[in-house]
Design goal:
By secondary structure, the protein is α+β, with helices and mostly antiparallel strands. Helices cover about 15% and strands about 30% of the residues. It has a single domain, classed as Umud Fragment, subunit A. The longest helix has 25 residues, at about 5-25. The model has no long low-confidence stretch (mean pLDDT about 90).
C-alpha cells in the first residue's frame, strides 16, 4: 500500500463513520427485545430496527409498537404497543380494554388479561402503552415504572425484525 491508498482508506473510514452517526442519530437504530412482554408479536432476543424520524412528521398512532425510555427507569429502553392517545380514557374490566367506554378489539394479545385497571385519562403529548403479553408486562398500568409515555421519551417506531434470520419480517402494527 502506498500513501495514496492509505489516505483513501482513512477518508472512506471517516465518511462511513459520519454516515453511521447520522443514520443512528436521526434515521434508524437497532434495538434488542429483552423479555417476554411483547409476545406473541416480538420475542426475547430478537433484534429489530426502529424508525427514529417518523414522529417528527406525525404523533404516534394507536397500535404503533414504540421504543421509549420509561420515566421510572431512565437508563433503559422499553418496547410496547400504543393503546391510548391523548385525551382518551382507558380502563380494563373483566379482561377487556375499553377506550372512551368502547371495547377495544385485541386479537394480538397472548392470553386474556387478568385484573382490573383504570380509568386512566391520557394527558396531552403522551400515550398509554401496554405489552401484548399483558399478564407479564410493565407498562402504562403501572405509574411508578412506566405510566404515561411522553412524546419526548419516544425513540421511534419498530419496523423490521432482522435477527434471527429465520424470523426476519416487517412488524405489523395494525
Amino acid at each position: 500500500m502506498d500513501s495514496g491508498d492509505i489516505k483513501e482508506f482513512f477518508q472512506s473510514l471517516v465518511i462511513a463513520g459520519i454516515l453511521a452517526f447520522i443514520i443512528i442519530t436521526f434515521v434508524a437504530q437497532s434495538f434488542v427485545v429483552d423479555g417476554q412482554s411483547m409476545e406473541p408479536t416480538l420475542h426475547d432476543g430478537e433484534r429489530l430496527f426502529v424508525n427514529k424520524f417518523i414522529y417528527r412528521f406525525h404523533p404516534p398512532e394507536r397500535m404503533d409498537i414504540i421504543v421509549f425510555t420509561p420515566h421510572g427507569a431512565p437508563g433503559k429502553k422499553y418496547i410496547k404497543r400504543v393503546i391510548g392517545l391523548p385525551g382518551e380514557t382507558v380502563y380494563i374490566r373483566d379482561g377487556i380494554t375499553y377506550i372512551n367506554g368502547e371495547p377495544f378489539k385485541e386479537d394480538f394479545i397472548k392470553e386474556p388479561m387478568l385484573g382490573e385497571f383504570g380509568p386512566y385519562q391520557v394527558p396531552e403529548n403522551s400515550v398509554f402503552v401496554m405489552g401484548d403479553n399483558r399478564n407479564h408486562s410493565a407498562d402504562s398500568r403501572f405509574p411508578g415504572i412506566v405510566g404515561y409515555v411522553n412524546y419526548k421519551s419516544i425513540s421511534g417506531k419498530a419496523f423490521w425484525v432482522y435477527w434471527p434470520l429465520h424470523r426476519m419480517r416487517l412488524i405489523k402494527h395494525k
